[in-house]
Amino acid sequence: MNLLHGTRFLNIPCIFSSPDNHPLLVQFNSNPYYCNYSGFQKHQGSWAEVKYYKKCTSHYKAKICNGREVDAFPDVQTLRKFPYDEIFGKVVMVRFDSNILLKKELDMKTQSVINSVSTIKYLYEAGAKVILVSSWSVKSNAEKLEVESVADFLSSALQVKVGPRKCHFESTKLKVEKEIENSEIVLLENLSEFKEELSNCSKFAKQLAKGVDIFVNDAFSQSHRILASTVGVSRFCSTCLAGFHFEEGISQLKKAIDIDRKPYIGIIGGGNFRDKTAALEVLACKCDGLIFIGNMAFQIMNALGLPARSEFVEHGAFEGALNIVEFARVNKVGIMFPKDFWCMNDYSPKQLELFPYSDIPDGWVPVDIGPNSLKEINTLLSKCRKLLWIGPPNFKLTNQHTYGESNLVLMLHKLSQQNCDITVIGKRACREIANKSNFVSGFNMIESGSVVWEFLKGRKLPGLLALDRAYPFEIDWNVAYRDPTQPLVVDIGRNGLFLLAMAQRRKELNFLGLEINEKLVKRCLNYAHQSDINNSHFISTNATSTFRPIVSSYPGQLICVSIQCPNPDFTKPDHRWRMLQRSLVEAIADLLACSGKVFLQSDIEAVAVRMKEEFVRYSKGMLAVEHGEWLEENPFVVRSDWERHVLDRGGQMYRLMLCKSNCCHTN
Q: How many Å apart are CA 219 and CA 229, to the nearest integer?
């Protein structure tokens, strides 16, 4: 096993042995921007010296270690935190993970199955009409392709009757054979049968979501893909939540990237190095050492100038591997790779022989890690306190059993008993651990390697971004206001100056501004602090999905909410992130004190009319329009910036006030 610490690369020659016992030099120049590499590659039976000259950069740390992956984790609304009594009577669509619930041998004791089943049963027991949707293929279970068979299988797993529903998508309409009855769980047709699912067809997604009140995504393994059933439907549902399994997937992924314990070692297997370079840079930033196994190991050997047969080297992987080596040198991250392999002869597939990494004969291909390498991995891991394993140690599947994975599982099990935090990623590794059922509790397991690789590359996860946002922090109202028991007035939108002027006029009230523009919020907070206005506060957030968790924690009464001059685009029915949605209206109606007011105004009549209709439709009969139609004057006296601009140019404002008179539904 070769352990290469970054300090040994800087201006110090590293000597290895070539197949002919000639010294092999890997020399890093003293110039930080240029590196010379010389090494050997075996091609057609003979070793040839290969020289590389590449411009290098020492700016990796600033580029990669800047917390970019944190931005890929928006705080989302979860089923666990959604009000239980709001589920009753609602039509809830659940996008479940067929890779979890349709396994041939469904283990009801594994956490992924428990969470997936719990999502569905929780909704059913809360009184929702549950619609199950997913896609499944022969790989999931060849015997369960028809929707009727899958429904029977799910009925057995859930211990609740699941009714199958065949459906057809014709002329932009999705036709379901039978209507959904109250308190029933139904399963729609296999979505893989529809090309519109893979293309995220907007018309198909709209039909799929027709009549749905709440969308629950519980297919974490599909969160890196853009599908109609995970992303498209979210545009047409008023509430979009993460199910229990999806929530657990997010939690496990956060644990994997959190640098909370040291030393942190990453074991990297599999192949396709070129496509994973960006992800490996992130791991190199977070880990104290990287152990490359599988085909990945030969790409690192090649980058270091060590002997590597050309057929083991991936086309186009050299530059990425070289970047990782240089990155490790700059950041003093140790790199390790195997020095012996079990190999298979193409002509005798049942015969395995052990060879050193530098002397694998022609006609033999590596299939697994050798015993000496495993011993040295075990020695290195004995002192680590956090470990991530992603990608198999094998090079190719063989009919003959190899022991790399089994030995790694045994090593990791011992580490878990020594209080080491271990995350295992990928179906094969998770399956190997599941086969040793008494080991499962000691690991954090994520079966979908594709999701993790995409996330580590710095890419957003579309399935995650499609869910409603949640406000992630608890607010200390005693810090926000001098007296947090005073009645509260909330303004939604870009009306900072209006709110500050109101706070100066009405000292007996507290004012809260919810605005998505963070820069504007900071300016308002600074102005309030400089002007000693201690009855106003501003929060940067998307009020559409965070109004309820924020305002429900306020110790005083909510007496008024104002929404002034929203973006006219919100009137478009397909605008997923429009400000005024059913979930916001319901939250305002629920939290508003009895006789509380809602003030709406816009300079566009169609927008004002649409706002009024939304509040009347979704306030559950609690809000009614006061004083007939439009108000001639602004009841607050203080005008917003846009209102003054419109009136100064001779325009008209359309205003109305709603009052909460029916308080029987108040939470």
A: 10
